[in-house]
Amino acid sequence: MRLTGPLESAALLTVLPVPAAAAGSTRGVLPWAPLVGLVLGGAATGLAVLGDRWVSPLAGAVLGVAALAVLTRGLHLDGLADTADGLGPLRGRERALQVMHQSDIGPFGVVALVLTLLLQVACAATLLETPHGWPALWAAVVVARVAMARTGLPGVATADGSALGSLVAGTVSVPWFTGWLVVVLGLLAAQAAADPASAAALVGSALAGLLAAELLLRLARRRLGGVTGDVMGAMGETATLLVAASAL
Protein backbone atom coordinates (compact mmCIF):
# COMPACT_ATOMS: atom_id res chain seq x y z
CA MET A 1 0.00 0.00 0.00
CA ARG A 2 1.32 3.45 -0.94
CA LEU A 3 2.99 5.39 1.88
CA THR A 4 1.47 8.60 0.53
CA GLY A 5 -2.01 7.07 0.59
CA PRO A 6 -3.27 8.91 3.70
CA LEU A 7 -2.21 12.25 2.21
CA GLU A 8 -3.85 11.41 -1.11
CA SER A 9 -7.07 10.54 0.70
CA ALA A 10 -6.96 13.70 2.82
CA ALA A 11 -6.31 15.82 -0.26
CA LEU A 12 -9.56 14.77 -1.93
CA LEU A 13 -11.82 14.07 1.02
CA THR A 14 -10.95 17.01 3.29
CA VAL A 15 -9.88 20.65 3.29
CA LEU A 16 -6.70 19.76 5.16
CA PRO A 17 -3.55 21.16 3.48
CA VAL A 18 -1.33 18.45 2.01
CA PRO A 19 1.80 18.51 -0.18
CA ALA A 20 1.07 19.17 -3.84
CA ALA A 21 2.63 15.84 -4.85
CA ALA A 22 0.06 13.90 -2.81
CA ALA A 23 -2.83 15.96 -4.12
CA GLY A 24 -2.09 14.86 -7.67
CA SER A 25 -2.86 11.16 -7.14
CA THR A 26 -6.07 9.29 -6.31
CA ARG A 27 -4.76 5.74 -5.80
CA GLY A 28 -4.80 6.06 -2.02
CA VAL A 29 -8.11 7.87 -1.70
CA LEU A 30 -10.41 4.93 -0.97
CA PRO A 31 -7.97 2.57 0.79
CA TRP A 32 -7.26 5.23 3.42
CA ALA A 33 -10.73 6.77 3.60
CA PRO A 34 -11.50 5.05 6.96
CA LEU A 35 -8.42 6.66 8.50
CA VAL A 36 -9.60 10.04 7.25
CA GLY A 37 -12.96 9.21 8.80
CA LEU A 38 -11.32 8.67 12.19
CA VAL A 39 -9.79 12.15 12.01
CA LEU A 40 -12.92 13.88 10.69
CA GLY A 41 -15.13 12.03 13.16
CA GLY A 42 -12.95 13.03 16.06
CA ALA A 43 -12.95 16.69 15.06
CA ALA A 44 -16.69 16.92 14.37
CA THR A 45 -17.62 14.94 17.48
CA GLY A 46 -15.34 17.03 19.66
CA LEU A 47 -16.99 20.23 18.47
CA ALA A 48 -20.44 18.72 18.94
CA VAL A 49 -19.63 17.76 22.54
CA LEU A 50 -18.27 21.23 23.27
CA GLY A 51 -21.38 22.84 21.79
CA ASP A 52 -23.53 20.56 23.92
CA ARG A 53 -21.71 21.49 27.12
CA TRP A 54 -21.50 25.21 26.40
CA VAL A 55 -24.97 25.76 24.93
CA SER A 56 -27.31 22.82 24.32
CA PRO A 57 -27.51 19.41 22.58
CA LEU A 58 -29.17 21.04 19.57
CA ALA A 59 -26.41 23.62 19.27
CA GLY A 60 -23.81 20.89 19.57
CA ALA A 61 -25.52 18.83 16.88
CA VAL A 62 -25.67 21.75 14.46
CA LEU A 63 -22.05 22.60 15.17
CA GLY A 64 -20.92 19.01 14.57
CA VAL A 65 -22.84 18.58 11.31
CA ALA A 66 -21.71 21.99 10.07
CA ALA A 67 -18.08 21.27 10.96
CA LEU A 68 -18.19 18.01 9.03
CA ALA A 69 -19.62 19.78 5.99
CA VAL A 70 -16.90 22.45 6.13
CA LEU A 71 -14.08 19.95 6.66
CA THR A 72 -15.22 17.95 3.61
CA ARG A 73 -16.01 21.01 1.47
CA GLY A 74 -19.58 19.71 1.27
CA LEU A 75 -18.31 17.17 -1.26
CA HIS A 76 -20.42 14.26 -0.05
CA LEU A 77 -23.51 16.39 0.43
CA ASP A 78 -23.17 17.52 -3.18
CA GLY A 79 -22.88 13.88 -4.20
CA LEU A 80 -26.03 13.06 -2.26
CA ALA A 81 -27.99 15.81 -4.00
CA ASP A 82 -26.75 14.83 -7.47
CA THR A 83 -27.46 11.15 -6.85
CA ALA A 84 -30.99 11.94 -5.68
CA ASP A 85 -31.59 13.97 -8.86
CA GLY A 86 -30.28 11.10 -10.98
CA LEU A 87 -32.02 8.22 -9.24
CA GLY A 88 -35.19 9.98 -8.11
CA PRO A 89 -37.20 10.62 -11.28
CA LEU A 90 -38.08 7.78 -13.63
CA ARG A 91 -35.58 8.49 -16.41
CA GLY A 92 -33.22 6.43 -18.54
CA ARG A 93 -29.61 5.69 -17.65
CA GLU A 94 -28.00 8.15 -20.04
CA ARG A 95 -30.29 10.98 -18.97
CA ALA A 96 -29.78 10.21 -15.29
CA LEU A 97 -25.99 10.38 -15.67
CA GLN A 98 -26.29 13.59 -17.66
CA VAL A 99 -28.37 15.18 -14.90
CA MET A 100 -25.86 14.09 -12.26
CA HIS A 101 -23.00 15.69 -14.20
CA GLN A 102 -24.74 19.07 -14.28
CA SER A 103 -23.62 21.69 -11.76
CA ASP A 104 -27.09 22.69 -10.57
CA ILE A 105 -29.29 20.87 -8.05
CA GLY A 106 -32.82 19.82 -8.94
CA PRO A 107 -35.89 19.43 -6.70
CA PHE A 108 -35.14 15.82 -5.75
CA GLY A 109 -31.63 16.82 -4.73
CA VAL A 110 -32.85 19.75 -2.64
CA VAL A 111 -35.37 17.60 -0.79
CA ALA A 112 -32.83 14.82 -0.15
CA LEU A 113 -30.24 17.33 1.07
CA VAL A 114 -32.58 19.19 3.42
CA LEU A 115 -34.15 16.06 4.89
CA THR A 116 -30.80 14.37 5.40
CA LEU A 117 -29.27 17.37 7.18
CA LEU A 118 -32.34 17.85 9.37
CA LEU A 119 -32.38 14.18 10.32
CA GLN A 120 -28.63 14.15 11.00
CA VAL A 121 -28.98 17.14 13.32
CA ALA A 122 -32.03 15.63 15.06
CA CYS A 123 -30.26 12.30 15.62
CA ALA A 124 -27.07 13.98 16.81
CA ALA A 125 -28.95 16.20 19.26
CA THR A 126 -30.69 13.17 20.74
CA LEU A 127 -27.47 11.14 20.92
CA LEU A 128 -25.64 13.92 22.76
CA GLU A 129 -28.10 13.47 25.60
CA THR A 130 -27.16 9.80 26.01
CA PRO A 131 -24.03 8.20 27.60
CA HIS A 132 -23.00 6.57 24.32
CA GLY A 133 -23.73 9.66 22.22
CA TRP A 134 -20.25 10.78 21.30
CA PRO A 135 -18.98 7.30 20.34
CA ALA A 136 -22.03 6.87 18.09
CA LEU A 137 -21.40 10.20 16.36
CA TRP A 138 -17.75 9.32 15.81
CA ALA A 139 -18.74 5.88 14.53
CA ALA A 140 -21.19 7.39 12.05
CA VAL A 141 -18.44 9.38 10.34
CA VAL A 142 -15.97 6.49 10.28
CA VAL A 143 -18.45 3.90 9.04
CA ALA A 144 -19.43 6.28 6.23
CA ARG A 145 -15.83 6.22 4.96
CA VAL A 146 -15.68 2.44 5.28
CA ALA A 147 -18.78 2.29 3.08
CA MET A 148 -17.10 4.54 0.55
CA ALA A 149 -13.97 2.37 0.58
CA ARG A 150 -16.15 -0.60 -0.34
CA THR A 151 -16.69 0.92 -3.80
CA GLY A 152 -13.00 0.43 -4.56
CA LEU A 153 -13.13 -3.36 -4.23
CA PRO A 154 -12.37 -5.45 -7.33
CA GLY A 155 -15.40 -6.12 -9.50
CA VAL A 156 -17.36 -2.99 -8.61
CA ALA A 157 -18.59 -1.55 -11.89
CA THR A 158 -18.03 2.09 -12.77
CA ALA A 159 -20.73 4.09 -14.52
CA ASP A 160 -19.95 5.43 -17.99
CA GLY A 161 -18.29 8.83 -17.91
CA SER A 162 -17.33 8.71 -14.22
CA ALA A 163 -13.79 10.10 -14.04
CA LEU A 164 -13.31 9.51 -10.33
CA GLY A 165 -14.94 6.11 -10.46
CA SER A 166 -12.52 4.92 -13.12
CA LEU A 167 -9.51 6.32 -11.28
CA VAL A 168 -10.24 4.57 -7.98
CA ALA A 169 -11.73 1.34 -9.37
CA GLY A 170 -10.03 -1.73 -7.93
CA THR A 171 -7.75 0.27 -5.60
CA VAL A 172 -9.00 -1.49 -2.44
CA SER A 173 -8.07 -5.13 -1.91
CA VAL A 174 -10.40 -7.52 -0.08
CA PRO A 175 -7.92 -8.19 2.77
CA TRP A 176 -7.33 -4.44 3.23
CA PHE A 177 -11.06 -3.67 3.37
CA THR A 178 -11.68 -6.60 5.71
CA GLY A 179 -8.91 -5.34 7.96
CA TRP A 180 -10.48 -1.91 8.24
CA LEU A 181 -13.87 -3.47 8.89
CA VAL A 182 -12.44 -5.55 11.73
CA VAL A 183 -10.62 -2.54 13.19
CA VAL A 184 -13.66 -0.28 13.16
CA LEU A 185 -16.07 -2.88 14.54
CA GLY A 186 -13.44 -3.88 17.10
CA LEU A 187 -13.11 -0.29 18.34
CA LEU A 188 -16.88 -0.09 18.76
CA ALA A 189 -17.05 -3.45 20.52
CA ALA A 190 -14.21 -2.43 22.86
CA GLN A 191 -16.76 -0.65 25.03
CA ALA A 192 -18.22 -4.02 26.03
CA ALA A 193 -16.16 -4.11 29.21
CA ALA A 194 -17.70 -0.87 30.46
CA ASP A 195 -21.15 -1.12 28.86
CA PRO A 196 -22.02 -4.31 26.93
CA ALA A 197 -25.41 -3.00 25.82
CA SER A 198 -23.87 0.19 24.43
CA ALA A 199 -21.19 -1.76 22.57
CA ALA A 200 -23.77 -4.07 21.01
CA ALA A 201 -25.86 -1.09 19.95
CA LEU A 202 -22.87 0.61 18.34
CA VAL A 203 -21.85 -2.50 16.40
CA GLY A 204 -25.44 -3.00 15.29
CA SER A 205 -25.76 0.61 14.16
CA ALA A 206 -22.52 0.34 12.19
CA LEU A 207 -23.81 -2.73 10.38
CA ALA A 208 -27.08 -0.93 9.67
CA GLY A 209 -25.19 1.96 8.11
CA LEU A 210 -23.12 -0.35 5.94
CA LEU A 211 -26.26 -2.19 4.83
CA ALA A 212 -27.99 1.05 3.85
CA ALA A 213 -24.96 2.12 1.81
CA GLU A 214 -24.85 -1.30 0.16
CA LEU A 215 -28.50 -1.03 -0.88
CA LEU A 216 -27.83 2.37 -2.41
CA LEU A 217 -24.83 0.97 -4.29
CA ARG A 218 -26.93 -1.86 -5.70
CA LEU A 219 -29.56 0.63 -6.82
CA ALA A 220 -26.90 2.72 -8.55
CA ARG A 221 -25.52 -0.32 -10.31
CA ARG A 222 -28.95 -1.23 -11.60
CA ARG A 223 -30.02 2.27 -12.63
CA LEU A 224 -26.70 3.85 -13.61
CA GLY A 225 -24.61 0.85 -14.60
CA GLY A 226 -22.13 1.36 -11.78
CA VAL A 227 -20.69 3.70 -9.21
CA THR A 228 -19.71 7.36 -9.63
CA GLY A 229 -18.05 9.89 -7.36
CA ASP A 230 -21.51 11.27 -6.54
CA VAL A 231 -22.75 7.83 -5.56
CA MET A 232 -19.76 7.42 -3.23
CA GLY A 233 -20.68 10.66 -1.50
CA ALA A 234 -24.32 9.66 -1.28
CA MET A 235 -23.34 6.32 0.26
CA GLY A 236 -21.30 8.15 2.87
CA GLU A 237 -24.11 10.50 3.85
CA THR A 238 -26.63 7.66 3.92
CA ALA A 239 -24.40 5.55 6.14
CA THR A 240 -23.78 8.50 8.47
CA LEU A 241 -27.51 9.03 8.95
CA LEU A 242 -28.38 5.36 9.43
CA VAL A 243 -25.62 4.78 11.96
CA ALA A 244 -26.76 7.77 14.01
CA ALA A 245 -30.43 6.84 13.75
CA SER A 246 -29.84 3.19 14.61
CA ALA A 247 -27.82 4.13 17.70
CA LEU A 248 -30.70 6.03 19.29
Automatic annotation (TrEMBL):
Q: Name one GO cellular component term.
A: plasma membrane
Q: What molecular function does GO assign, one term?
A: adenosylcobinamide-GDP ribazoletransferase activity
Return the Pfam families for the record: CobS
Q: What is the protein name given in its UniProt record?
A: Adenosylcobinamide-GDP ribazoletransferase
Topology in membrane = Multi-pass membrane protein
> What superkingdom heads the lineage?
Bacteria
Q: Which GO terms describe its biological process?
A: cobalamin biosynthetic process
Cellular location(s):
Cell membrane
Q: Which gene is transcribed and translated to give this protein?
A: cobS
Catalytic function, reaction form: alpha-ribazole + adenosylcob(III)inamide-GDP = adenosylcob(III)alamin + GMP + H(+); alpha-ribazole 5'-phosphate + adenosylcob(III)inamide-GDP = adenosylcob(III)alamin 5'-phosphate + GMP + H(+)
Q: What is its main location?
A: membrane
